[in-house]
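Morning F.,

Quick status update on the modeling queue. The single chain you submitted on Monday has been processed. Sequence for confirmation:
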Amino acid sequence: MTEPAAAPTPHLVALGPFCTFETHPEGSELPPPWRPLSELTEEGNGALRERVASVRASLAANYGSPPEAVEHRVAASVAHLGLMARVISPALGLATLHGLPSRPLTLGDLRWRSSLSGAFPLSLPQEAVAAAEGVQHGHGPGSDSRPVSTLADDLLTGPVHDLVAAFAPFSVSRHILWGNVASAVNGAATGITAAAPSLAHPAHATALAFLQHPQLRNTHTRNPHNARFTRRSCCLIYRAAPGGTGAVCGDCVLLRGRGGGGRVGNRRGGRRGGR
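Structure tokens below.
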């Protein structure tokens, strides 16, 4: 067994904790508590139900309620959104810095240490990201060698698709789950822009490449005047509050009916997406 190493990507670190990751030799076994992220899609091992149960208990504790006070599907949607934010952000960060993984990543490639912090520890294969790191430091080929649209397709038809399918049995509609994905993409670009304003244009251009993918095209709208992102579904977190009276997120479709009030905020690492 081997311990993962910190990725030599100071540029990514500057983009915030969601974009940061560690690396490990491809195919290596890491010591506990490191686990393959693919365990969440494996039937019978209980890892996904354990994750949803932990999020359910945490959401309920926010309101001093027992876990059963929070609907199972609400906890599942919030858990899914947090995972999406963590899986998508490193890829978006790499693409924003003009370095892309050298090959498609699978859930079996990714390692994680489960925690309820927003940016839980994540490790990627060294070999897959080495080329991207080289580009960031000026030692690799240009970013046009592998377009961002290809990265978007790789992620959305690979790891993201697998996690959407895994969460669907929790009575969460795929419309909501793919809306969570779109929200995570937009949230990643927003977080990168906040951390590094000079990267606003490439960050949002990268996000747009994801959001224009056929799988996400109908999950959101963008205001033509200010490019404001609004999803066409709700992650359901407002229903975790007693009586379903909680605030909604800053990109939620329900804001249209609330006059813009009662927001949680469009945060990747806070109460909404970081479970």
